[in-house]
Amino acid sequence: MKAIILVGGMGTRLRPLTYEMPKQMLPLVGVPMIECVFEMLARHGVNEVILSLGYLPDHFITAYPDGAIAGVKISYAVEPEPLDTAGAIKFAAQFAQVDDTFLVVNGDVLTDLDVTALVAFHRAHHAQATIALHAVEDPSRFGVVVTDGDGRVSAFIEKPPREEAPTNLINAGTYVFEPSVLALIDSGRKVSVERETFPALAAAATLYAMDDHAYWLDTGTPATFLQANIDLLNGRDAERTIADLVGSAWCHPSSQVAASAKLNNAVVDRDCVIGENVVLDGVVVMPGAVVRDDVQIRSSIIGPRAVIGSASILGPTCVVGAEVTVADGSELSGLVQLGGI
After folding, report:
1. 62: CATH
2. pTM
3. Are residues 215 and 248 in the same domain?
4. Which of 16, 33, 84, 129 shows a CA-CA span of 20 to 30 A to 307?
5. At a CB cut-off of 8 Å and minimum separation 6, what does 114 contact?
6. How far apart are CA 223 and CA 335, in angstroms?
7. Residue 140 has pLDDT above 90, yes or no
């Protein structure tokens, strides 16, 4: 089966980290997020992925010169201009000449969804399209999906006010499509799958949805990106063995970490230097970063080759961009984002 992974977004909520790289290339315990998505799809029989690219496409193309991840073939569909979600799906499907049932996956979502069961549900109901659902506490940031007893979608409401949401089951960003869906999407303009395509399919009574109760996380904010790393450190993905894990901290073998440093739910990527008496609690330190002596960092992300000056206190929740230097003795908290283009 083929799958389209949507990775064209600019990742604005994760700036300044995404000025340098697309968010799906940001590392989760040392492995680019996109590889985690590929590994999940490979476990369910996907043998070809079309990456729908828009923002910084060369980062993906140059990272995988062999044209495969986890044994899954890659092709690259680079949008000539932003086409929104449905437009991107149609462009990628036409580029790869998709002519059979296919998957669509949001590239910044981590999930243990049983994709095999989702495809079986789709086929059993003779659906034109099927959405994976997930229950959340606050559905106001998502597309809320209302179904009947058989799973047929009766309403698709994009980002309703919390108090007006008819259910807490939301669009979890994994879909099964028949090729006939593509004919409903106009070519050459921006088309939203959430605001146009799904409501049209619901009106035609050919859209279904399945609740899976799987692990699910939208990694698009600093807090959820940190949570994704912490979840992996604590064994969320049973299929992944993390070498060099000590308790709930992982340090790449190429990094230098002082013996007096205290790490909890912390990731220290390659070629980093962590000084004496440093405290890292709920922190991701990206490749080449330096954290000098007597620093305390909590619930924050330190970007590639950044330098955190001695005796500084950061977080929560600070995001320090690539090559940014934080002065000695700095005290920063709140949603602090340092760095730019």
Report:
1. 3.90.550.10
2. 0.89
3. no
4. 33
5. 44, 212, 214
6. 10
7. no
User: Both ends of the chain: CA-CA distance in Å?
Assistant: 39
Query: What's the domain count of the chain?
Result: 2
Q: Are 111 and 174 in contact (CB under 8 A)?
A: yes
**Cα separation of 264 and 282, whole Å?**
6
Q: Do 133 and 169 meet the contact criterion of CB atoms below 8 Å apart?
A: yes
> Is 61 inside a domain boundary?
yes
pLDDT in tens, 282-300: 999 999 999 999 999 999 9
Pick the catalytic residue from 2, 159, 190, 262.
159
Name the residue among 336, 328, 327, 287 with its Cα closest to residue 311. 328
The Cα 301–Cα 286 span in angstroms is: 8
User: Which pair of structure tokens corresponds to residue 134?
Assistant: 């997930």
For residue 265 the two structure tokens come to 């739910």
CB 2 within 8 A of CB 96: yes
Q: Is residue 230 part of a domain?
A: no
Q: Which residue, of 189, 221, 253, is where some domain finishes?
A: 221
90 is a catalytic site residue: no
Whether residue 36 is found in the same domain as residue 180: yes
d(CA 315, CA 273): 19
